[in-house]
Amino acid sequence: MSDRDxxxxxxxxxxxxxxxxxxxxxxxxxxxxxxxxxxxxxxxVAIPGRPATPSLARSAARPPAANVxxxxxxxxxxxxxxxxxxxxxxSLPVRQGEVLALIGASGSGKTTLLRSLNRLTEITTGAARxxxxxxxxxxxxxxxxxxxxxxxxxxxxxxxxxxxxIFDNVGYALAERPQGRxxxxxxxxxxxxxxxxxxxxxxxxxxxENLERSALRLSGGQQQRLCIARALAAEPEVLLLDExxxxxxxxxxxxxxxxxxxxxxxxxxxxxxHNLQQALRVADHVAxxxxxxxxxxxxxEQVFEHPVEQRTRDYVSGAFG
Amino acid sequence: MAARPERRxxxxxxxxxxxxxxxxxxxxxxxxxxxxxxxxxxxxxxxxPSFSANGLSWFGSxxxxxxxxxxxxTDTPLPGHSIDxxxxxxxxxxxxxxxxxxxxxxxxxxxxxxxxxxxxxxTPVRRVLDPVVRLxxxxxxxxxxxxxILAIAPWVNEHLxxxxxxQSVAYVVQLSGADLTTATLILTVMILPIMIALIAxxxxxxxxxxREGSAALGVNRWRTIQRVxxxxxxxxxxxxxxxxxxxxxxxxxxxxxxxxxxxxxxNPLDGLTFFFEPVETPATAILKEFGGETGTPVAHxxxxxxxxxLFSAALLSFAGWAVRQSMRSYGAV
Amino acid sequence: MASTQLLDAxxxxxxxxxxxxxxxxxxxxxxxxxxxxxITGIGLCLVAAWIVLYMLVKGISALNLKLFVESPAPSLRExxxxxxxxxLIGTFIITAIGVGIAAPVGVGIATWLTEYARPxxxxxxxESGIETxxxxxxxxxxxxxxxxxxxxxxSFLSASTNGGSVSGKSFLAAGLLMAVLALPLIVGTVREALxxxxxxxxxxxFALGKTRATTIRHVLLPSIRPGIAGGVVLGMGRIIGDTAxxxxxxxxxxxxxxxxxxxxxxxxxxTGSTLTSYVYGFSPAGEGNSPHKAYxxxxxxxxIVLALNALVTRLSRGLSLGSVDWTAKQ
Lengths: 321, 333, 330
Fold this sequence. Notes:
The structure holds three protein chains of three kinds.
Chain A: H1 22-27, E1 69-81, E2 84-96, E3 99-104, H2 110-117, E4 127-135, E5 138-139, H3 145-151, E6 152-155, H4 166-170, H5 188-200, H6 204-207, H7 220-233, E7 238-242, H8 250-263, E8 268-272, H9 276-282, E9 285-290, E10 293-299, H10 300-305, H11 310-316
Parallel strand pairs in A: 3-8, 3-9, 6-7, 7-8
Antiparallel strand pairs in A: 1-2, 1-4, 4-5, 9-10
Helix pairs in contact in A: 5-7
Chain B: H1 5-54, H2 65-74, H3 89-120, H4 123-138, H5 141-159, H6 163-168, H7 180-204, H8 208-216, H9 221-232, H10 234-250, H11 253-258, H12 282-289, H13 297-327
Chain C: H1 28-62, H2 66-69, H3 85-116, H4 120-135, H5 138-150, H6 171-196, H7 199-207, H8 212-223, H9 225-241, H10 244-250, H11 263-269, H12 275-282, H13 291-315
Helix pairs in contact in C: 1-13, 3-6, 3-9, 3-12, 4-6, 5-6, 5-10, 6-9, 6-10, 7-8, 9-13, 12-13
């Protein structure tokens, strides 16, 4: 199948036969995939053989944020563990006002790329890099690493609240010392920052009556929102999310996805996800990576519905994953 | 399916055997409780005469326990007192001093050393330290006592105690290298390895996700250790303190070899000399003064001291349990 | 943006390999703590090295083969005071008795605690009891032993003097007390080993219709042999290293003294010494005139402890006894 141009007026073609078994598709590198439907009416992409996704799909009419500002730029970045180059020559912009989703199969290097944005790859010995990553124009390797990580915060796949109270967890990056149980000793500024962060994370209402409870007693979804609040407390400029909902139930997932979309106004959001529907729901721009290379980057509708590259088309249609 | 009668009989025999085994093993386990109860009762029974003769002032001060023991052994009561006269405070004071100093110093050093081993030490150093610390934890106390009395005490005597200091208290007590400093020093070294082992184990078990999470929030490595790793290791630190205190409380042989021979109320008001005054503890007094006969005043006093030690061991056990309970609140246990 | 480069071609331009976090930019307080940590660590290494080297040097210089085969002889002169054969035998006897009693009892108790544990209140109390027993100082145990063995119906276990009163001191008595000393260690280790066995092992055996007792005997205990051995060796280490019980329960005489009667029983009911009481007796705290002999005996003791430690490490390698590998990469 050759490249197709974007034609909004192409008719939807019904495809009656179910897709061929996976094994055959992988072996036979050119599956017969139906023409992608237009997204004009916003009811979602017609993936062949599957019913149109219900209203959980994002409305294509969701307007972009008010002002989109580029915060970080990845320029020809290569990353390796030892001698194994897991990210090869990737260049991407990261913008405030939009959500960037990194999608791809396991081993495609998307998590490594994410972790390089806040230099978390340096924790592993034997990591190597080439290329340049900048934050607001300055190379991130010129920054002091702790200062960088306050500007570029990360939320992990498994919720990892510390063994402290909710308040101490959220205020962790702010306070020089743990604030103690007595309210009088807390500085008003930190208390305000904690409450703000909890509100932004949509958790405040649920925990407001007792912030001294142990964070480990919250449910999984609440813990993950707590981690998001914790990451937001230092008012970062970029928020990195590494498959944040993969360990959560659908309701918590939906809550967090709404949260992510709401946050994009104030922070640049980069999310790595395995879940294509999730990427479709939350992302404004999508970058598809495969075996370390950036295969395709573009607006979400374009990558999902009219992908330029064959590999993108195969992945998005479920031919491999 | 109905089993044949022989099989049913065989089955019931094995079930019977199973019950017998359970009862036997349960009896063994209950035997432990019986042992503890018997121990408590017999020690208390033998200690009672000393307590009843002296009343609450048994715990007070009033003379030198060694002299009091000598009086009991030669059956010549001290003037104005009964044969059972005994005042244990110098021994108890010595116990408090050595235990508290040793445990506090060891806690600080062992935490720092455990952090060093798990976080900062280069791998070859770690590989060497691991078996060395374990070995030191198993060294018998008599060997520490030997090194103490033959190497450390003379060194302290020569280099740390000046003649002037010696003379300033010569009218009260003879200063030699066998004193509070040497005793506390060696006691600290004795309890360090087990504490380091426990705390290092706990630090190494702190989940990577916590440390990564802390790093991702822009907190530097030392702060992460201090605020997350140490916090996660709190139950182990508490357990280490309890274990170390128990060992320090019950230490008899090493202290008997290095502690100076004369129970003396080491007086903090003496200033620096305080650290060089000799100390005795209940355990060392028992070891040195008690010959093994039962039913004599010496025996009663010795058993009274043993009762105090037993009681403090039980108290420590309870304290350990209580601390573990309170640590459950933050889910760190 | 799709590239067509070969999968193993390295990138153009410079490759940077970042180092671990440097402390240069930390606040002063943190740098101070870091430095203190390093100083403590190095200090620990130095102290440990000093102790080991000191014992090695002093011990080897005083050691010679004759010491192993001669009995101690009373003498004021060090050259003629003989060797430490009797204490060696004494150590062996004590350990054998102590472990011989503590091992089966300990395994039994540990098994009961993990496999049966009915009624619940009894199990909890026994657990606390074992912990309390672990914390009792050995000198208190020794005093308790005197009470039990010098009077009462256990007096047949030890020698009686001419006056008919029982001294309460004998290898048997001391051995029994040593068993109590080693018991908590064995129970703890075996319990941990049993708890680490996956429940499917037990379930498989029950599903085949075997009783609990049979399962324990034929399935569980054989699988935790390394754990049992580890616990026994730990108990042995504690027994070998204890001096207080020996001094109180076995007396001060360095030589073995039988109590009369059939040969083996005579030794067991008699008194003697072990390496630990020998070291105590020959140091300045005891008779005090043979520091060299004391060092030699202490060195032998240390070597035995080292060997036991190495044995425990070997045995528990397959079975994690709750200890974590500190050398694992962070």
